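As a warm-up, study this chain.
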Amino acid sequence: MILKKIILLIYISIVSHAVESQTSYDLIAVDIKKSGSKIAIIEGTELKITDRKEYDNQPDFINEKQLAFSAADENGNHDIIIYNFESGKFTNLTKTPNQSEYSPSITDCGLFVSAITVEQDGKQRLWLYPTNFGEPELLYDDILPVGYYDWYDNKAAMFVLGQPNQFVYPYSKSEILTISQNIGRSIQKRPKSSIVAFVDKNDTKEIAGEKAFAIKGFDLEKRIFENYGYTLPGAEDFIWLDKNLLLMGKGNALFVRKANQEDWESSGFLQIKDYQNISRMAFSAKLKKLVVVMERK
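Now compare it with the structure written out below.
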């Protein structure tokens, strides 16, 4: 019975990535102007970083000039690719024919790009890939299957798939705190704080016939919760532009609001031929660039 449950959880985890990857996505960069609590898209700066029918998704800036993302090859294997904004060139951080890597992120120390790796035997765990292209390291051997995560204090706050899923933080080997259950895939550390924000799917409200989810924060130092209002109805991917400003996308539109306010304000549209539905995003304050994932029509 226990073995059947473990197999089921691994299957759920792999399917969660596989269903998403059946659709074609591309990464599109745009320059934005940020002033206080408002942003504006600078027209004419749109750049398709990727332009192909395969899966390109889950972007994350690893420094001021490089972006990491997960990309599928023609055989359906997913590798971590690094894009350099200065040179316009792509580099494989991983090239693994028998496993797949998802959700890259730079670690606090800056020496590794972490990724959720679906191993050859189906285990889905968090691995560290050195930025100098050295040998990868398994981080948590007994926390699985990991779906999504973000970093604080050189430890990962992780979405662990199950029924229900668990949101955990390993303070130590012997203390793995369950922060919440039934959360969304967007886990985002609040800049310049010890708070990790997440979508709480237990707390919802209906707006214009669509469901909105609560955005909550958990202070990993104080061990208290904070409330940041609700997502856009019908959407759940958000990022922080700075310590106080949240950004979401819906359809081809971008919306911002302060964390202590309720109403989302439109910040413009990305009208790009043959693309729709902004989902995941990454922002570089130094480059003043926003990278969005959009679905190919």
